[in-house]
């Protein structure tokens, strides 16, 4: 389900808690960097690579997040799409097609409890391990594996700055498809309008 893949990336990116042992120092830094962050806005570029066909779909848009669990994920190109997680429900909206799909919040609970782990509701060491750490230019790259893989998430990579700011994530599903998202123009402590995280 596409919406769950987006959610997994979204929360893995901005609310990851520290993992034990390998990579522990940088994940501690990530935790400190985001612990007191009440809200965030960032631009994103996304590449969805389909392994079997070899096709890659490129997207771009903006991501808004407010604790504890409010999300406004807007894709501007190549076609508009909106994902909203409100306090009561989840909406996936396709304006060009005049379609809006409504999901209950327990969709998150039914994703192998991964969402709860990566939003800080469950300690990450109960479900994930950091199996590798390396350098790519100015960024630190972490290699993550879930203890209990699910179809939508079997492996992930995370790129972070020394400060703990997360710049890029890459997730693989059971079929080898890759979802890569890179974030730029981070704006922490952003004030949002009342209707930002609602849809009707």
Core attributes:
single chain; 200 residues; alpha+beta; 11-stranded antiparallel β-sheet; 17% helix; 44% strand; globular
Structure description:
With 200 residues, this protein is of the alpha+beta class. 17% of the residues lie in helices and 44% in strands. Residues 12-22 and 112-124 have low confidence and may be disordered. The chain has an eleven-stranded antiparallel sheet. The longest helix has 13 residues, at 2-14. It has four helices and eleven strands; from the N terminus they run ααββββββααβββββ. A hairpin with a 3-residue loop joins strand 4 (81-85) and strand 5.
Question: Helix and strand layout, with pairings?
Answer:
Blueprint: H1 2-14, H2 24-35, E1 39-49, E2 56-66, E3 70-77, E4 81-85, E5 89-94, E6 99-104, H3 106-109, H4 114-118, E7 128-136, E8 139-146, E9 155-160, E10 166-172, E11 178-188
Antiparallel strand pairs: 1-2, 1-11, 2-3, 3-4, 4-5, 5-6, 7-8, 8-9, 9-10, 10-11
Oligomer state equals single chain
Q: N-to-C terminal Cα separation, in Å?
A: 23 Å
Along the chain, the helix and strand elements come as HHEEEEEEHHEEEEE
| Proportion of residues in helical segments | 10-25%
Secondary-structure content class: alpha+beta
In the predicted model, the low-confidence regions spanning at least 5 consecutive residues are: 12-22, 112-124
According to DSSP, the number of beta strands is 11
The largest β sheet comes out as: 11 strands, antiparallel
What count of helical segments does DSSP give? 4
Radius of gyration: 16 Å
What is the residue-mean pLDDT, rounded to a whole number? 79
Shape: globular
Query: Largest beta sheet: what is the strand line-up?
Result: 6-5-4-3-2-1-11-10-9-8-7
- Percentage of β-strand residues: 35-45%
